[in-house]
Design goal:
single chain; mainly alpha; 5 helices; 0% strand; elongated
Length: 127
């Protein structure tokens, strides 16, 4: 009798059919996604809430906030670890829209301080 073998890594498969099927309906990623999408980013004082007309396109502040909240809830404190999680963690891949470049978290702060960010979120959520 032989060993139990896995699939050939070079073999194409139809699994998963879509990324949506991998995240349960009651997962915290869906809560983060729905919460952040409902926020008025410009009204909360985020400087780059609208895309600029010129230059290299930046990351959407909503995506950066989703990443930051996910890291906070999962106790990921290192920006380098958050960046690597963007490439390997299926939950973050779903949350950030399956971008293949990850997010370079050096731009994550983008002039925001933790205190200001959390203060704005608490005021929006409870105020």
């Amino acid at each position: 009798m032989g060993f139990v073998l896995g699939e050939d890594r070079t073999q194409g498969t139809l699994f998963p059919v879509c990324l949506e099927e991998l995240i349960p309906d009651d997962h915290v990623c869906r809560v983060i996604d729905a919460f952040v999408d409902r926020l008025d980013m410009a009204g909360m004082g985020f400087e780059r809430a609208e895309a600029a007309e010129t230059g290299r396109p930046g990351y959407d502040p909503r995506d950066l906030l989703k990443l930051y909240l996910y890291g906070y809830l999962q106790q990921i404190r290192s920006s380098r670890r958050l960046e690597s999680e963007c490439r390997r963690n299926i939950e973050l891949i779903w949350l950030l829209g399956a971008r293949n470049d990850g997010i370079q978290t050096g731009e994550k702060a983008d002039g925001w301080t933790t205190t200001l960010l959390l203060g704005q979120l608490v005021a929006t959520f409870f105020g």
